Model the fold of this input.
Amino acid sequence: MDKKDEQDFLNDVRDYAETQFDKQIIYLSSGALGLTMIFSKNIIELTTSQFLWPMELAWVCFALAIAFNLASHRTSLKCSDSGILKKQFEDALDNVNIEKYDKKYKRFRNRTYFFNGASYYSFLAGSAFFITFMFLNLNLKDMSKKQSLPPKPERGDFGRTPPPDSNKSKTPVKPNIKMPDNRPLTGKTPPPKK
Done:
């Protein structure tokens, strides 16, 4: 393989990797946007959550990641078109148009790099905001459950105090105790034996 073929191969591999990266950012951002909307409704009610701002920022970041990625595709096409025209003018030895399309090529290439980076970092920021939202609201939910539990008995009370009876009735219950001679216990003293 000569140097030109090797360079073409490496360029093809780089283009393929960049295309796959762009696809993955789009898939992940779109999926994360949809899943966070569904997932957060099932785990935490959005109307009662205390900290809603991280979720809103996560949605904005995921939407921005998608928008930046689409803009990256657009500037990448413009960059390719400028590069093709620049190459055609180089073959025709038209120096005026070579400089013009070289500037366009560099400008669109730089924009593509910017949009790719912005897309990547927007996705990371959206993920971080979603994790923050879940952490804050699940901790708050756990804390409210802990506060609603009855107080634990003090250390010395274990085994000494019977648990409160939730089935207490308002009328006193008479014990069903019988005397040794099978007479019911009435609370009255029996008459003395003669």
